[in-house]
Amino acid sequence: MGDAECIARTAKIIAQAAKENPCVVVVSAMSGVTNRLIEAAKIAEMGNAGDALAVLNELRKQHQAAISSLIPDDKKGARLRERVEEVLAEGCRLCGGTALLRELTPRTLDAISSLGERLSAPLVAAAIEELGVRSEAIEATEVIVTDAYHGGAEPRMGLTREKSQARVKPLLEKGTVPVVTGFIGATADGQLTTLGRGGSDYSATILGAALDADEVIIWTDVDGVLTADPRLVPEARTIPVISYREAAELAYFGAKVLHPKTLNPVVQAKIPVWIRNSFTPEKAGTKITPEGRSIGGGVKALTAIRDVTLISVGGPGIVGLPDVVGRTFSTTAEVRANVLLISQSSSQNDICFIVATADAQKTVEALRKEFAQDLAHHKVEHITTDPNIAIVAVVGENMRGTPGIAGKTFSALGRDGVNLIAIAQGSSESNISFVIEEKAVKTALITTHREFGLGAAQG
Ligand code: ASP
Ligand code: MG
């Protein structure tokens, strides 16, 4: 939600839907707000309370302006303004405390970064009421129970189910639309947590599963899941139906539409998830279902991940070291670096894997420490990094058992002069990934997209 106009549009979609079926709304912060809050937290950590409070002040203006344009009634507006002040006052105390201690714990960062959703939910609820539909904002700390892993908490579904049903069902029975803060949860003893950046989608599927929803609709600013990034591939198209597995592969590989964990909660109950564009609600978007739908050729979509770094651990000496693989990946786990792709040739001279560039430095430092002895004795000859690479993934569930897809992909790339650095295919066969130079991404995507006819209408 960018501004008041976006909120008004959102409210209209909700009010319309609520007239047809009971629905629960999950909201994210207004755009840019979470980034600003994290910035304020970091500024406070450096001891600069004044600048942190100045950021909060800008957020105050942004939300007050939205209230003025959405809620003409002074009395209702005043109540909402008061709520905004309460939430921001909490933000001021949190930033003040952080600045005083010059320490930002993960728990405090969660408390600060969650303020955006706590500001937007009452606003959206009020905007819905403006349209004559009863609505109430709910803090997700009351309904989503998580573990205590701050910054990336995992839901505890049993408890979440109990709490959300008890809190939300009575509202639905009264015809009131609950508006729940996305991104946020709380531990069983009430400590606020967040689900990770972009986590509102995840909140929506968690609640969808906990409340036995018929479907979950994620309203965003793109037309659904596309065959490729349209900024790079002009012929890219919206995919009408896609399977959980395909969507998860795409999410995992950086297609920005979904938080990677979004589909986990709904898989068991087989609840379909829609991705739709709130700017063009007349379009159907993409439906994510347990099976998806097969299309000719098996390939559904392409995706590229940039901002990744290739790390290689190797040298002829590692052939005889039986535990290099184990030690390498316990090290990446220790520093919590998410490994996106692994490739090892059968000669075992070299293990190469890919992590987000943001994680590369700490990973390499930890590896150099882990293998210090072996490096000194030349058993491990090198630990090197290459940040100028990207991963391209070719995704499609029906690629399984369809021979020739890798062949077709790689000969097309060869023809267009794209050099392959590493290749990986999981045994699920729903994804072939390859590593190329970053500057070749556009060519690789366009070539592969054309090779598999992804721009043509899909049945
Ligand atoms: N506001 C949170 C974020 O920006 C969650 C979300 O937008 O989904 O990460
Ligand atoms: Mg977001």
Q: Concise description?
A:
This protein is 43% helix and 19% strand. With 459 residues, it is an alpha/beta fold. The strands form 4 sheets. It has a 6-stranded antiparallel β-sheet.
Can you describe what's shown?
This protein is an alpha/beta fold and 459 residues long. The chain has 15 helices and 15 strands. It has a 6-stranded antiparallel beta sheet with strand order 11-12-10-13-15-14. Strands 6-8-9-7 form a 4-stranded mixed beta sheet. A 3-stranded parallel beta sheet has the order 1-3-2, sandwiched between helices. Strand 11 and strand 12 form a beta hairpin. Helix 2 packs antiparallel against helix 5. The model has no long low-confidence stretch (mean pLDDT 92). Bound molecules: aspartic acid and magnesium ion. The site of magnesium ion has 3 residues, from loops. Aspartic acid binds next to loops.
Features:
459 residues; alpha/beta; six-stranded antiparallel β-sheet; four-stranded mixed β-sheet; globular; binds aspartic acid; binds magnesium ion
Q: Roughly what fraction of the amino acids lie in strands?
A: 15-25%
Which hetero ligands occur in this complex? aspartic acid, magnesium ion
Order of helices and strands: HEHHHHHEHEEEHEEHHEEEHEEHHEHEEH
* Strand ordering within the main sheet: 11-12-10-13-15-14
**First CA to last CA: what distance?**
32 Å
Question: How big is the Rg?
Answer: 24 Å
- Mean pLDDT across all amino acids: 92
Question: What is the helix tally?
Answer: 15
User: How many strands, what sense, and barrel or not for the largest sheet?
Assistant: 6 strands, antiparallel
Q: Can you give the helix content as a percent range?
A: 40-55%
Could you list the spans in which at least 5 consecutive residues all have pLDDT below 50?
none
**Overall 3D shape:** globular
Structural class: alpha/beta
- How many beta strands in the DSSP annotation? 15
